[in-house]
Design goal:
single chain, 453 residues, Potassium Channel Kv1.1, Chain A, Jelly Rolls, four-stranded antiparallel beta sheet, 15 strands, 23% strand, BTB domain-containing protein, SKP1/BTB/POZ_sf, BTB/POZ_dom
Length: 453
């Protein structure tokens, strides 16, 4: 072999001159190794083979808490410094093994793999790993995504949150989620806690659960809308009558101040915020998000000037993405009459014009997920960003349809790429229009997808 690493790797693979045996996993899979290699790689193995823990009669050495595949990956790293991780689950299991045997370099490699792959799709799996192994850096990475995407990633999965994680979320000063939504999530957690403990769902028991974990004191009730507070909080009977009265008065005063209806401070009452109630009166700051652009490049084909009423573009992504908008062309300043007489008489405008159209996104069953109207003064022959009224989840390997209804005008369209890779996600497009149904090529109207990972 050309290198020492390769020769050591061959020793492991061929089990040559081994002097220790492990029984790994639930089925006691036999794995043979070399004491010296393991001892120089891990202080745990050093103590086991050459220190105070040494006991030759204990072989095979039982390792019931690590799967054979993971144990072999750890050994391969010990023998050759090579590591090939393929999944988040694999990295989490290997991180557990590396921490058990006090191998900080291997732990760091596993941790970096998980950090690089912490995103919307992997959030809950990585959170489970982070909490089980008490990896603070990994928990912080998950926390940032939760704050950035708010209800999009954890509003519907509050039951998966531990009390410690929910407490950390409620302690954040910046989050893309309203206080009313945070209260709803916190209340859902309290409901589950009561059910898990076999306690009747009463306001008092919900309050006990929230106070036990110090969650109630982290809800900013003073930023609630008065009507929302009465409907969403008061009716739960979590707060006492005196707490409700004071909070209602403070909310009312704040709303009057915001509307400029209380100029004389002498007419204001002084209300003492009850103990255990958050005194903060400011909303949490919004968190900016990174928006990626999946842009379709031009491919060979004719340029088309098209006048039609509807453009449809189907989109499939191989990963879960949150779509925030799209880019489309504006009308062409040139006349298409010479190329296509059936388009009729077209004027030669200059400068800008008022563009109006509607965008709807549906799933493959035809259910409308979002509908947005676009109305803006735009330059001719340009690309414009259309921000959706509501962001839409595109699930992996599912077909979604972008339907654009235009009123009039001539658009210069190109044949754009049907498959585009962006930040590791592959988008597949298919274009059609009311003309394509008649057998006429229509070009591509959706030029880019704007999305978050």
């Amino acid at each position: 072999k050309s290198s020492l690493k390769e020769r050591f790797k061959e020793l492991l693979l061929l089990s040559q001159w081994t002097d220790c045996t492990f029984a790994v996993g639930e089925e006691n899979t036999e794995i043979k190794c070399h004491k010296l290699v393991l001892a120089v790689s891990s202080p745990v193995f050093e103590a086991l083979f050459f220190g105070g823990l040494s006991d030759p009669s204990c072989e095979p050495i039982r390792v019931p808490d690590i799967e054979p595949q993971i144990f072999k990956m750890m050994l391969m790293y010990m023998y050759s410094d090579s590591l090939n991780l393929h999944t988040v689950e694999e990295a989490g299991n290997l991180l557990y093994a590396a921490k058990k045997y006090l191998m900080p370099q291997l732990s760091r490699l596993c941790l970096e793999y998980l950090l690089d792959r912490t995103c919307i799709q992997t959030l809950w799996d990585i959170l489970a790993i982070a909490e089980s192994l008490d990896e603070e850096e990994l928990i912080d990475a998950v926390l940032k995504i939760m704050c950035r995407f708010g209800r999009h990633v954890w509003y519907s999965k509050a039951e998966h949150l531990s009390a410690a994680m929910l407490k950390r979320l409620l302690s954040e000063t910046s989050m893309n989620m309203s206080e009313e939504e945070l209260w709803s999530v916190t209340l859902d957690w309290a409901h589950k806690d009561c059910l898990d403990r076999g306690v009747i769902l009463t306001g008092r028991h919900l309050r006990d659960a929230l106070q036990r974990e110090r969650l109630l004191e982290r809800i900013r009730f003073l930023v609630f809308n008065g009507e929302k507070f009465k409907n969403d909080v008061v009716q739960t009977e979590v707060l006492t009558e005196s707490e409700v009265n004071v909070i209602c008065q403070l909310i009312e005063e704040q709303q009057l101040d915001q509307n400029g209806l209380t100029d004389d401070d002498t007419n204001k009452h002084t209300y003492e915020i009850p103990a255990g109630i958050c005194p903060l009166k400011k909303k949490r700051r919004r968190v900016s998000r990174v928006i990626w652009r999946c842009t379709r490049e031009k491919v060979k084909g004719d340029t088309m000037w098209i006048c039609c009423d509807q453009f449809v573009c189907s989109v499939v992504s191989n990963n879960l993405v949150l779509v925030t908008g799209l880019e489309v062309p504006t009308r062409s300043i040139y006349s298409a009459r010479e190329c296509y007489p059936w388009l009729g008489s077209l004027q030669h405008p200059t400068g800008t014009y008022n563009e109006r159209f509607s965008v709807a996104i549906t799933d493959q069953d035809g259910t409308v997920l979002v509908s947005t109207s676009y109305d803006a003064r735009v330059p001719y022959d340009s690309i414009q960003v259309v921000t959706l009224d509501e962001e839409v989840w595109f699930n992996a390997n599912k077909t979604y349809y972008i339907i654009i209804e235009v009123s009039s005008g001539s658009y210069e369209l190109y044949n754009l790429a049907r498959s585009v890779e962006s930040k590791g996600t592959i988008f597949t497009f298919k274009d059609s229009s009311d003309h394509s149904r008649a057998g006429i090529f229509c070009g591509s109207f959706v030029t880019s997808i704007l999305y978050c990972l």
